[in-house]
UniProtKB/TrEMBL annotation:
Gene3D superfamilies the record matches: NAD(P)-binding Rossmann-like Domain
Keyword annotations from UniProtKB, A to Z: Oxidoreductase
Pfam family, one: adh_short_C2
Organism lineage string: Bacteria, Pseudomonadati, Pseudomonadota, Alphaproteobacteria, Hyphomicrobiales
Entry protein name: NAD(P)-dependent oxidoreductase
CDD domains named in the record: SDR_c
Xref: PANTHER family: OXIDOREDUCTASE, SHORT-CHAIN DEHYDROGENASE/REDUCTASE FAMILY (AFU_ORTHOLOGUE AFUA_5G02870) (PTHR43639), SHORT-CHAIN DEHYDROGENASE_REDUCTASE FAMILY PROTEIN (PTHR43639:SF1)
Oxidoreductase in keyword set: yes
Amino acid sequence: MADDHPVLLVTGASRGIGAAVARSAAARGWQVMVNYLSNVAAAEAVVQRIAAAGGKAALVQGDTGTEEGIAAIFAGVDRQFGRLDGLVNNAGVVDSTSRVEDMSRDRLERMFAINVIGKIRCASEAVRRMSIRQGGRGGAIVNISSMAAVLGSAGQYVDYAATKGAVDTFTIGLAREVAAEGIRVNGVRPGIIDTDIHASGGLPDRARDLAPTVPMQRPGTAEEVAGAVLYLLSPEASYVTGTIMNVSGGR
Ligand code: NAP
């Protein structure tokens, strides 16, 4: 693939929604930087699958919940590709199910560090590289939110839902701030998607168990979320900014 293809950074791209976005983006001609936290084998598999399909991808380790991690990720982008045209702010975590009064300060700080501050800081680094006001050539950012932002996740993880509400507000504000600088900023709110995230919260069957509560009567796939993300990144969405798209089967 020619080096003049646009470059997309996907955080948390070793598994789940991020991996599906990375694969779909590569199939549409993006060069993809695959970020991961700890699962190097899964990240390598994503890169190899993209290469096998004729695409171009590289991987970079980095914790989006820390300044050192974010610096390493963007240093990797600069070193590997020397340009940045898109960011999918995907990395996010849940914690074990809990009532609010039992949530510790440490838990809340980790949750907000990764799901909110990490996304704001990654977007900041992307804007520095993409803003035409700062010598860049423009670009697009997609923030991965959740239907939890509007539903609240009572009895499960209200803290997580609150981080996603913050992400939505950030999407609207940043979109307006950089709209005249060639950067579009949008969000996607997945509903119940069949990935590992539910097991990481101690509810491995959550997607299947909640299927009857979804109007479409099934969980979504990571690929279905990726379709929305790729639209928002694409030239077809050239007049779309500050929008948050539900991908939730009607939930
Ligand atoms: P997942 O299957 O648990 O995968 C999480 C990915 O994020 C992995 O690639 C993981 O890397 C990476 N990651 C986790 N913490 C990170 C950190 N601090 N720094 C860098 N990477 C990190 O999750 P998912 O279901 O695909 O969720 C992706 C996004 O969609 C999240 O923002 C989530 O809140 C949102 N979402 C998901 C659902 C759903 O039902 N699945 C619904 C609504 C919203 P390793 O492989 O190295 O651990």
